[in-house]
Amino acid sequence: MDNFEFLSPTKIIFGKGTENQVGQEIKKCGAKKVLFHYGGGSIKRSGLYDKIVASLKETGIDFIELGGVQPNPRVSLVREGIKLCRDNGIDFILAVGGGSVIDSSKAIGVGVPYSGDVWDFYAGKAEPKETLSVGVVLTIPAAGSEASKSSVLTNEDGWYKRGLNVEIIRPKFAIMNPELTFTLPPYQTVCGASDIMAHIMERYFTHTPHVDLTDRLCEGTLKTVIRNVPIVLEQPDNYDARAEIMWASTIAHNDLLSTGRVGDWASHGIEHELSGIYDVPHGAGLAVVFPAWMKYVYKEGVDKFVQFAVRVWNVDMDFEDPERTALAGIDRLKAFYKSVGLPTSLKELNIPDDRLEEMADKCTAGDTQTTGNFKKLGKQDVLNILKMML
Ligand code: NZQ
Ligand code: ZN
Where are the transmembrane segments (predicted)? Predict the structure, then answer.
């Protein structure tokens, strides 16, 4: 196990009716004026918008609002949000929605006190030193942004999708009521589950030895998602199953599962090129990338893939042929994706084969950088994996 520091400071407020506490929680943070940031309208249809407004008014919190965050959030709206905050003396951002709204909020938060352009942080040209505080009411378990140190934005100028990873952007609090996820359409539900599973698997596949505890935590979290997704597809308003998945989304990505080990993250890098150019849901893209990545790299550490197959997918161990066991685990993962309605090929995502080289190039900064750690991948490796996804 490697040395590590772990701090996950986001206060989690979990359970039925908790969204009504939002005004009180913001007050505890000492906020004077709030930007209420949300997406394309699901919160208005579900009635959550009215509850948030009521809670803010009840606690006497002054606020303005900015809706319209798109999935795969854009830097243009972030720039608009930054101006709005500066013009109105905003000192706190309330994100009500999923990863896209939260990431847009985090970006506005670091952009307000910065004199340059906010994209500098995503292009790796500058590191944010301060931020406005962000609070969250989560409506979709998926990205884990409610407690993560990440924000992912898309720049329409070149369709670059890039992440910022820095401790100061972890939200102050995350209100998580599983009932708010009952309205999720099946496809969004499974895209979210795929992202949760991916966050665990990115951490799981490592060469760091003696990580028994975190291996078992990863396996347990994965098995929880795998067990409960079919239940919520049958019964969208099953509170207990929705609750298991919602808590898994946070645990998968608040860095508890990466303590003492090196993660991989190549599949996320490759997926961000897919959703950057083609605007597909991140979780759908990951369901296509992950099995291909696994088949490309498993020989670098067959034992880990055997462990994954046996412990997570209950594959019978073939002592004569460990590689067969490893491959059976990958096949089970792919079969699970298919069984819940996720795509497993670029074709199913309606992605043609004419820009694979461009994506491989962007993913490796023109072949000047590698991506991933389990196996360090250059441009040709990424291209090979993309071709396996056709
Ligand atoms: O915009 P509205 O109308 O609210 O609809 C949303 C959106 O269309 C809908 N939705 C959300 N909650 C709902 C609902 N519909 C009905 N009922 C509800 N309760 O779902 C759609 C998707 O929302 P989005 O926020 O885009 O989903 P998700 O949470 O999967 O976030 C995806 C984004 O997060 C990034 C992804 O790359 C992508 O841009 N990620 C962020 C990470 C982070 N910050 O730590 C890590 C991840 O790896 C990921 O890259
Ligand atoms: Zn993800």
Answer: none
